[in-house]
Structures are given as C-alpha cells and as structure tokens.
Automatic annotation (TrEMBL):
Ligase among keywords: yes
Matching NCBIfam families: Xnuc_lig_assoc
Annotated Metallo-beta-lactamase domain residues: 19-182
Database matches in Gene3D superfamilies: Ribonuclease Z/Hydroxyacylglutathione hydrolase-like
Cross-referenced SMART domains: Lactamase_B (SM00849)
Any GO MF annotation of the entry: exonuclease activity
Protein name according to UniProt: Ligase-associated DNA damage response exonuclease
Keyword line: Exonuclease, Hydrolase, Ligase, Nuclease
EC number, as in UniProt: 3.1.-.-
Keyword Hydrolase applies: yes
Amino acid sequence: MSKGNTAQRIIADHWIEPHPYGIYVKPADAWIDPMRAVDTALVTHGHADHARGGHKRVFATPETLAIMNLRYATGDEGHGVPYGESFDLNGVKVSYHSAGHVLGSAQIRLEYGGETVVVTGDYKRRPDPTCAPFEVVPCDVFITEATFALPVFRHPPTQEELGKVLALLEAQPERSVLIGAYALGKAQRVIAELRALGYNKPIYLHGALEKMCNLYNSLGVDLGEIYAVADAEKADMAGHVVLAPPSALNDRWSRRLPDPITAMASGWMRIRQRARQRSVELPIILSDHADWDELTSTIREVNPREVWVTHGREDALVHWCSLHQIKARALALVGRDEADDG
C-alpha cells in the first residue's frame, strides 16, 4: 500500500480527508487546492501546483482570484475572502490568514465540531515587501508544507544574497546580471528587495514576466521602473538587472543582453549541483518557503495537537515531530513537485 493510501485510511474517520489530488473537507463538501476540477474549491494561492481553472465555485483572497484569472482565465465567478474575515460553508467556519508566500497567499482556517484545522498551503517567515507577513494561527491540527524540511536548508539573509548582485554590477558595469526567477512571486520579490537595497535603476524583463509584474503594480505593489527587454537596446541594459524565467537563462533569447552574468534566485541554489546543472554563475539563495528552522519554530508557535505534513521532505519533518512528542503523519499528496518557485 502506498504512503498516500495509508494516510487516507488512518484519517478516514476525520472530517478532513486527504486524497492524492487534494484535501477534502467532508461536511463542507469542498476541496482545498484540488488538482482536478471540483464543484467547490478553497484555494490557498495562485501557483500551478495549488490553483487551476475549471472549478464551479472558488473561494480565495481577492489577490489570488486576480492572479488565477490572469494565469488560468478563470473569470469573475470566484468569491473573494479578505484576510481575517470568516464565512460559513455547510456548518464549517472558514477564514483566510496570510501565509507570507506570495501576494494573496493564505492559510485556510477551518472550524467544525469543536476542532480547528489550519491548512497552510505554502508559506515563509522572512519579511517580503510584496506580500503580507505570515500570521501564526493556533489550531488543533496543523497541515504544513515541507519543501525545505531538511537541516541543510537554512536560508541566508536576503540582503546578503542580493547584495552580491549590486556588487557585481558595480565591479563590472559593462555587463548585465540576468536573474532567473519564477514568474509569480519570486520575480516581483527580487525587484522589490533590490529597491529596498537602494537599486533605483530600471530593471528589464523577459516577456513572460511582464503581465504578472504589471498585475502586482495594479494591486498596489510598486516595483519602480520596469521595462521589456524587447523594447530596449542592448547597450541600454549594460550595468542593469534583467529578469527572466529560469527556462530562458541559457537559451538564444539571452544573446540580446550585454555579456550577461547568469544568476538564479531560489532556495534550491543551496545545492551546488543544481546551480551547476543550470550553468548558473551566481547562485542567489532566496526562497519563498520556510527553511528548516522556520518550519520547526512555526510548529512550536502554533502548538497544535497534531501535525500533518505534505509537499516536500515529509519524512524528515514527521521524524522531528516524533522526537519532540508531537503526533505527526505524512499525507503524500500528488502534484507537489520541487518546482522553481523554491
């Protein structure tokens, strides 16, 4: 029997039921982050391993609904849920609370039969100028991600990592720095963090990043001067930062840049082999997920009776919980890959 089937059997008598393609809230007849089209979906955030089109009814934060409409053409049928507001779904009290992952990302708090469950989706604890900070929500059952749930993953200070970019530009002003960054969340955070460090020059974008950056601007996240690479002359981009999706770092498109230094912003850059595989000259360890210490400290702060773990290094976090006398189990949902949104 697979690990996922074991988890389903163990929790079969609970009102929250894990399935390979999502988490089912039985009394509400609703699914959290389902990977298949359903009648009622409660969505934590807009990344493709949590959100999709085709649902009949969607509950999410207004920002997530806007992101879903841009990415998946979901239309206006969604129900916007601001942070902290609650609503009733067939006797289940539901509220959304900031996850600090990307703009509009939320933890979903569910209360039923005297028990409280919090589904985190993805989250981080570091400050991020592009989204609201993580909110600690006490609960009985805490369903946490585990993307970087190994002790080797301890993210360095953000300012130090992006300071390397500014130092390179100062030392080699005739070149550009091309940073690979995931289109939703990471690209906008890199821009905003550079602005916070005093980088006020124009930043140039691959065409695949333009619409999401423009949406962030329209939702109140000021990214400063951003321009399309397609509209710029090669010489104009010398001494500047250029952002592109990771898939574009080493393709022909990059030839239009002035002698680019190839960089990538991801928590996975902690692993040197990953940087070498992508021919990355400047690994930037910058993650939109909690690291090992932040995952374990969050569990301590939330102080749940039980922890359910999904999306990543499940076994290591379950083992840590057992060492600290916290009941825990792995859910092993499908579709939760180690994507470039690390």
